[in-house]
UniProtKB/TrEMBL annotation, chain A:
InterPro entries (alphabetical): SBP, YnjB
Protein known as: Putative thiamine transport system substrate-binding protein
SUPFAM superfamilies: Periplasmic binding protein-like II (SSF53850)
Keyword presence, Signal: yes
Gene3D superfamilies: Periplasmic binding protein-like II
Cleavable signal peptide: 1-20
Keywords noted in UniProt: Signal
TrEMBL record, chain B:
Gene Ontology annotations for the cellular component aspect, listed alphabetically: plasma membrane
Listed InterPro entries: MetI-like, MetI-like_sf
Location in the cell: Cell inner membrane; Cell membrane
Family annotation (SUPFAM superfamilies): MetI-like (SSF161098)
Domain named ABC transmembrane type-1: residues: 54-268, 353-544
The name this protein goes by in its record: Putative thiamine transport system permease protein
Domain of life where this protein originates: Bacteria
Lineage start: Bacteria, Pseudomonadati, Pseudomonadota, Alphaproteobacteria, Rhodobacterales
The UniProt record lists the keyword Protein transport: no
Protein family membership: Belongs to the binding-protein-dependent transport system permease family.
Pfam families: BPD_transp_1 (PF00528)
Chief subcellular location: membrane
Transmembrane segments: 58-84, 105-126, 146-168, 205-225, 245-269, 299-329, 349-377, 389-416, 422-440, 478-502, 522-549
One biological process term in Gene Ontology: transmembrane transport
Amino acid sequence: MIRQFFCTAALCAAATGALADPDPADWAAVTEEARGQTVYWNAWGGSDAVNGFIDWLGAQALAQHGVTVTHVKLSDTAEAVSRVLAEKTAGQDSGGAVDLIWINGENFAAMKEQGLLFGPWAEALPNFALTDPGANAALTADFTVPTEGLEAPWGMARLVFFHDSARLAEPPRSMAALADWAAENPGRFAYPQPPDFLSSTFLKQALIELTPDPALLSQPVTDATYDAATAPLWAYLDALHPNLWRQGRAWPQNGPRLVQLMADAEIDIGFDFNPNAAANAIAAFQLPDTVRSHVHDGGTLGNASFVAIPYNAKAKAGAMVLANLLMSPEAQARMANPEVWGLGPVLALDRLAPQDRALFDALPLGEATLDPAALGPTLPEPHPSWMDRLETDWTRRYGVAP
Amino acid sequence: MLRAAPALVLLALLGPVAAGLAGTLAPAFGVMPTLGGTTPGLEPFRALLDWPGLPRALALSLGTGLAATALALGLTLLICAGWHGTRAFALLERALSPLLSVPHAAAAFGLAFLIAPSGWIARGLAQMLGWDRPPDLLILQDPWGLSLTAGLVVKEMPFLLLMVLAALPGLRPGQSLATAQALGYGRITGWIKVILPRLYPLIRLPVYAVLAYSVSVVDVAMILGPTTPPPLGVQVLRWMNDPDLALRFQAAAGAVLLFAATLLALALWRCGELALARATRGWLTRGGRGRAERGLRAAGLALGGMSAGAVLLGLAGLAVWSLAGVWTFPSLLPDALSLRSWQRHGPGLAALLAETLLIAALAAGIATALVLACLQAEQRHHLRPTRRALWLLYLPLLVPQIAFLPGLQVLALLAGLEGSRAAVIAAHLVFVLPYAFLSLSDPWRALDPRYAAVGHALGHGPASVFWRLRLPLLLRPVLTAFAVAAAASVGQFLPTLLIGAGRVPTLTTEAVALASGGDRRVIGVTALAQTGAAFLPFALALLLPALLWRHRRGMRHG
């Protein structure tokens, strides 16, 4: 009798465990469950603009859906990944500390591969219908890894260069021109040291511009293709490095450091993965208002930022409601506003109602920000396997001083 | 109860360290089922050895660690030998607690802004020489780790000075030195010959703690150290943070190697101690009275002043940055001042101040109480810790944090403790207890036992003697120990982050996240806020005795 009771209880517990995960197809039930939940959103906390936007979004979530948002400010996304990993190691398969992670690229690929993500859920969000994955492949392929509904896109990043027009009138607009310019102006350009993600972006941009057949890059790397495809890149870097800041004997640690070096007049050209980075830095007093953006003629790399829910998250329904809110026209227009942040929206404007589209038409563009036409074409990310090989080889060649 | 205190303390310290180490050793030998590692093997170490930067990273960790410790210790001793008891020394002593309150990373940022080719000193030169671009010089992140060593020296010297000051009174240095000087010994020579041999055993463990910290340092090294390759501690953190989760095995192996490197550094240091003792044996007793002392004294004061000045000036630089509008090279000061950085981040940080201070007060309070219980047990039951027990006490300071915190995080999760304030306090306790013990044990043992004897003779029991004699007489060192522990708690980053699960934010975790954006204005605000929070307990330790003893003239300077 007693044994039977325990068995039933265990069964019930198992059944409720399985039932407990909210189903985004039943959106009314999700919003109902989300009400009153607290979502711990783990997101990089190093930017005023981003922190301000997340604060605003949290206020919206509370007002509209009764969801409390706590921004867990990270100095590195890996902190959140490590936390979920530690929880899985300790067997804590529910009630985890992380509800939503700002993630993309390699971190997503790793969590997906290790089964650390909940889902699929993203493509069932009501506002996902406002995007057009057919026209924008970056929304469902993160660094070419299929997202399969495990993460929801919310912003479009683009590689954009910036220069101080007071010191440099006409910046170089291709990798080849950049090397020539660096040879004439030694010590005035720098890129961060791999494996920083902005550094990887620079190396990939250079690879795309220099490799004989860019089409190969969308395929996984093979020993047969790698040497021929990357030989021009290594020749380029061998020639460029002696003309870099500190002759390539020291490297900026990350992207934000480039902004600081620019303000210190140590370098003349910097770059960032936010199309609005220069304007944000000017608004934060970090750069003088003579700084302008530019891109390379053949286009620059672009990709999407995503949010994902860990497999053991406590407030999955609340996290989904927040992700959906993040893709709402109102939030997207605010995020795209250069005075707020300036990240590109993920919505397809032709799928919006006229009054929602008007939100985007009304966006102001500062002098330091390029308009969509001047931004040029977006280049797709190479398959992540290229990046792994590039980083390893870079470290072998340049990352270990003799 | 009191008899159990030492055992309780050891348990509070060793349990977490042992569990943490186990959590690192397993993946280092390939066992981490979550990531598919089930069969033990040496593969992670093989991968580690294959990393081409390993020899240099290891050499950097050992070289900068040993050099920084030797320089900081040498400088501390030179200043004490040349200036202890003078007015200049009192001045330096007064600057001590602000220097101790500056977090390591903030001191490193400040120093970086001073000495960079586009930094404050260079800007002064630029004004005179008319530069509009900074020179392309490799000063920060130099491959030899010289800036890193300098950063460690300026930050560790105040700590060693505090430890020397805590240990000195028990040695009655005034009488010894007067005797030596009466015999014609120079001030420095006399100090080194009659005081140092008795002083060094008392500060040996703090010196070892400094050495272990310097070998495995991460935050200072990330700002001032080289990157091609970085010191081993930084590289282990990089692997641990790499999106490629397979590198966790290699990171764990690296952490084990870092621990081994720390032990090697300690062994080398011990050999150095013995060699130096042997080499100077003759010199000590041969009767040389010392020469050229004036130069040495001046050098000691100048270097000590420079070292303290660098930290304070760096802090001033950060203060100006926190108020800066646009500020580009080569301007000495910002084009415009603005309160915006404070307005933007001040309220958020202030909200965390209460939580930070609560955690610090509880962790430091428990630590001080435990240390007092241990010391009292020692006195009453003659449980004087053996040398080996003392080593155990300092284990949390000697084992690189990165080698055992990830394991500790898993332990906290298994215990269902992660993400609570209590868990964070418990984790802090592991790191602040040794500091409390470090700064309290010597003054406590140095108290003249005749006070207690008189108390007992007057009919007071042990408890009464403790509460009515010992504690009041030692109020100042007790409060100093509390302050050192609280300041250490305020500065904890990794333990708070890992054990707090991001749900127990403190000033320090917030500061590190905000500073990851690299804006010096934000770094200035957060660094000052952290320094302020760590300084509060020190200020309290100075103020409280003055208030309590305002009617007790004899206690005011005791």
